[in-house]
Amino acid sequence: PCNQKLQRENTTISCIQDGKLYQYGASWIKNCYRCYCSQEGIGCCSIFFRPVGYDEKKCKLTFHKESCSYSVVQKADPSKLCEVHGFVG
Questions:
Q1: Confidence of residue 11 (pLDDT cuts 50, 70, 90)
Q2: So what's the pLDDT on residue 68?
Q3: Which residues contact 67 (CB under 8 A, 6 or more apart)?
Q4: How far is the CA of 14 from the CAs of 5, 28, 34, in angstroms?
Q5: In whole angstroms, what separates CA 58 from the centre of its chain?
Q6: How far is Cα 2 from Cα 48, in angstroms, rounded to an integer?
Q7: CA distance 71 to 76
Q8: pTM of the prediction?
Q9: Which domains does the chain have, with CATH numbers?
Q10: What is d(CA 34, CA 80) in angstroms, rounded to the nearest whole number?
């Protein structure tokens, strides 16, 4: 999913996010979101996809922040992966 954050700091050629200045056209990845700076402001889109269509009773979903990915493993034996039927993001 994407979102648009309009952050105007009285500047005509850049955006500011978390105190950092970005020129128009710049893009960066932070907290598993790819962000970009444009004249409209800062826009960010997730770079991960959430698994869906797995057995939630028998399987556990875990998010791995370092790789911006999920794993779905069996609750009874976490060394075994579960079957996943789709992804959303």
A1: low
A2: 95
A3: none
A4: 14, 14, 17
A5: 26
A6: 11
A7: 15
A8: 0.69
A9: 2-46 (2.10.70), 50-88 (2.20.25.590)
A10: 31
**Do residues 74 and 80 make contact, with C-beta atoms less than 8 angstroms apart?**
yes
pLDDT tens digit string along 40-86?
889 999 999 999 999 999 999 999 999 999 999 999 999 999 999 99
Cα 63 to Cα 3, 15, 31, 39, 60, distances in angstroms: 21, 30, 12, 33, 10
- The dihedral built from the CA positions of residue 11, 32, 44 and 25, taken in this order, carries a sign that is positive
Residue identified by tokens 């269509």 is: 53
Question: Which residue has 């994407």 as its token pair?
Answer: 2
CB 33 within 8 A of CB 45: yes
Tokens of 72: 């779905």
Contact criterion met (CB below 8 Å) for 7 and 17? yes
